[in-house]
Amino acid sequence: MTTVQDWQAKSWVASANEAGCGFPLQGLPYCSFTSEDNRSVRIGVGIGAEVLDLHALSGAGLLASLGGEVVSACCAAQLNALMGCGPEAWRMLRGRLLELLGEGVAAEQREMVAAALTPVADVRFGLPVAVGDYTDFYASIHHARKVGSLFRPEQPLLPNYAWVPIGYHGRTSSLVVSGTEVRRPSGQYRVAGAEAPVLGPTRQLDYEMEVAAYIGAGSAMGEPVGVTEAEGHIFGISLLNDWSARDIQAWEAQPLGPFLGKNFATSLSPWVVPMEALEPFRVRLAERENGMPGPLPHLQEGGDARSGVNLSVEVYLRTALMISDLLEPFRISAANCRELYWSFAQMVAHHTSNGCNLRVGDLIASGTVSGSAAGSEGCLLECTRRGVQPITLPNGEVRAFLEDGDEVILRGFCEREGFRRISLGECRGIVRAAVV
Amino acid sequence: MTTVQDWQAKSWVASANEAGCGFPLQGLPYCSFTSEDNRSVRIGVGIGAEVLDLHALSGAGLLASLGGEVVSACCAAQLNALMGCGPEAWRMLRGRLLELLGEGVAAEQREMVAAALTPVADVRFGLPVAVGDYTDFYASIHHARKVGSLFRPEQPLLPNYAWVPIGYHGRTSSLVVSGTEVRRPSGQYRVAGAEAPVLGPTRQLDYEMEVAAYIGAGSAMGEPVGVTEAEGHIFGISLLNDWSARDIQAWEAQPLGPFLGKNFATSLSPWVVPMEALEPFRVRLAERENGMPGPLPHLQEGGDARSGVNLSVEVYLRTALMISDLLEPFRISAANCRELYWSFAQMVAHHTSNGCNLRVGDLIASGTVSGSAAGSEGCLLECTRRGVQPITLPNGEVRAFLEDGDEVILRGFCEREGFRRISLGECRGIVRAAVV
């Protein structure tokens, strides 16, 4: 059974139909939340300016047709059990939610559903998924090239880039939900010219604007997932900020890669947008560039594979001064995921090509999303060329890297003529001073 | 309350008192197991040739004095809940087990305890701990130098080595318990001189002989753990084989470190030896070498800190031919953890120095343990100098890297005149052919 999606349908939740609303009936992203009058952690679904409480919906008997396993999974605190029910269950649940929230629903049911709505403004989000393993890729060739040019002007792109979706394992204990404050990390770094390193608060704190996919269907150890089946393992996507301390990272990263320069905090947006909601925005990834070889057959997607997403991502900065002056956040960069070099399907196929097993709830991030154009750099390292060319904000403040009190806000959305806007929401975090 | 340890005491379990037995009363390592006549997964304790079932012991009321939280934790399938009870509980439980298994126990209790014993030969082990994050360090300077000399003869040791306990995040989904077969991974590698890589079964499959510490007491995000308090966060240690595909690793590892060359499988020994059992074997780490600078103050241990362990580790190989000819495994190398450059306390202090939080059940591995002497190389990469100098086995077989059907066996033990031998048990794995 496939959900029949009506890309023009409206919801009886009025706020979902407003122009520009990123949470229309066609979106229905999942989250984990609590509210003032109900502190138990529940799964919710975003619709307009409301969160639909799936636990309450189950309690009202409105999900009974989906079977006991799905009903039980909808009563959990996080999405893992629901993802574990499998793609067919995801589609059925989405279909049922489209019915219940659509204009055609019977008045009696509509009343029961309305009783399970809470304004987004009144909820507190938690991490939507208990993540088992978190892998961070390096899928933007523009990011790889621009960062590479800072450290290896003679060879910005390493020879393996065109062949291997480069990735590494990140830290799961320090994944935090949007809105969590981020403490400036201390660590070892070595100032240029010095022989010995020093320990101190990082002087090069950065963000990385990323998109992340949650694995909803696992894979067995020893069994590679083919690139054409790979996307079926993905439940949905979110925004991710891979906070980075560039000075710590530069000093520690040889020979085994980033560690303390990254693992102090990684922020996730609260919403998980299901892959089905992205269907109208699927595109071929931008043409591989002239002269780029590869990939090997196991990573080749058909010429008509729409494995990319026309997904705009933006990063905004609001300094402490801007906050106190009530100024709007300033957009530093905007990029689009269609410019990634590797698709999530290719990342999944590569990840499992050696038999590494994926589990329900694993997180796979794109790496910094940067575009080819100026103004599309997904981190300050690129924007300011390692701090050498600081940016000037509209209020006259200057930034080479992040300062204490700075708030970083990632936003993501899909737009296409004739379709409703689908928002990924926001991923926010304010930098707090290091503990001295 | 501290357990009064009697390093000469005997157990009424006769096999525990035999000369050379590595599971005496003073050891009491923990495991997770099932048995033929009871398939439920339980926590056990090794004593002589027996496993003591803590669930059964709780059921008999013999742990009641420890309180409900500990009793409940002892009835779990893995050690996480028990570790979560905290160091004081660990000591109390160990004290109670020493009483119950010691010669002085009353006959009635002894009978009840005896009923909870199962021969080790009859049990099947599982992973003792549900690991949240797995970090692999690079704490052997001899390993770092010998491997470095293969790739950078002009600079075997990188400038950061003396300052930073180098580490990276590993994969938790593919942690497997000793005895699990390991499938030869396929992956991309590039043959010397070739322009393009190929996809195929690794031609350079290797083991890494490591020791790993389980975090039993976590730490909060943003709060560094001081080096003198760090060891209090460790519950116990095990053996770990960080299987590695050197050709895949070499091709993928720049710029973000090892990924598919490592994450297809990591084997763990079933036993977790509590830190208290290692007390007589604690030593200062070998002197820092002449001319080595550092570390910075936050990683400095007092001159009399016995942060090392006089722990012998050995790696044995048994080929398919040796198995069919009933030949004993051949010892390839032997090293000692007292030759590590960084202690587990320093690894924990470093890991948290940026505010990265540790959770109960996290795993921290030493990296390959190699010694200074010939014959103490902890991996084949070192032994055979990247395959250039293959080793010849007693039956005439030759190995540059591992072949299908090879069994790798790690063993670890502490020995000291006047004290009982404490074994870490074994970590075994047989290599199976790649799926083609």
Which ranges of chain A are low-confidence, i.e. pLDDT below 50, for 5 or more consecutive residues?
none
Multimerization state: homodimer
Number of helices of chain A: 11
Structural class computed from helices and strand pairing of chain A: alpha+beta
Give the overall shape of chain A, derived from the CA principal axes. Answer: globular
**Amount of helix of chain A:** 10-25%
Give the C-alpha Rg of chain A: 22 Å
Integer average pLDDT of chain A = 96
- The CATH H-level superfamily of the largest domain in chain A is Fumarylacetoacetase-like, C-terminal domain
As for the CATH topology of the largest domain in chain A, it is Fumarylacetoacetate hydrolase, domain 2
Count all strands of chain A and give the number: 26
Question: What are the main properties of this structure?
Answer:
homodimer; 436 residues; alpha+beta; SH3 type barrels; Fumarylacetoacetate hydrolase, domain 2; 2 domains; eight-stranded mixed beta sheet; five-stranded antiparallel beta sheet
Structural summary, described in words:
The structure is a homodimer of 436-residue chains. By secondary structure, chain A is an alpha+beta fold. Chain A folds into two domains: 14-126, SH3 type barrels, CATH 2.30.30.230; 134-432, Fumarylacetoacetase-like, C-terminal domain (Fumarylacetoacetate hydrolase, domain 2, Alpha-Beta Complex). Chain A is built from eleven helices and 26 strands. Chain A has helices at 54-59, 68-74, 80-84, 87-101, 107-114, 141-151, 227-230, 246-252, 320-324, 344-352, 380-383, and strands at residues 30-35, 38-47, 50-53, 117-119, 123-126, 134-137, 167-169, 175-177, 182-183, 186-189, 198-201, 205-206, 209-215, 234-241, 244-245, 266-268, 273-274, 282-283, 308-309, 312-318, 330-336, 363-365, 391-392, 398-399, 407-414, 422-432. In chain A, the strands form seven sheets. In chain A, strands 6, 7, 8, 13, 14, 16, 17 and 22 form an eight-stranded mixed beta sheet that branches. A five-stranded antiparallel beta sheet of chain A has the order 4-3-2-1-5. In chain A, strands 9-26-25-20-21 form a five-stranded mixed beta sheet. In chain A, strand 25 (407-414) and strand 26 form a beta hairpin. Chain A is globular, with a radius of gyration of 22 Å. Chain A starts with 29 loop residues before the first strand and ends with a strand. The mean pLDDT of chain A is 96. Chains A and B meet through strand 7, strand 10 and helix 8 of A and strand 7, strand 10 and helix 8 of B.
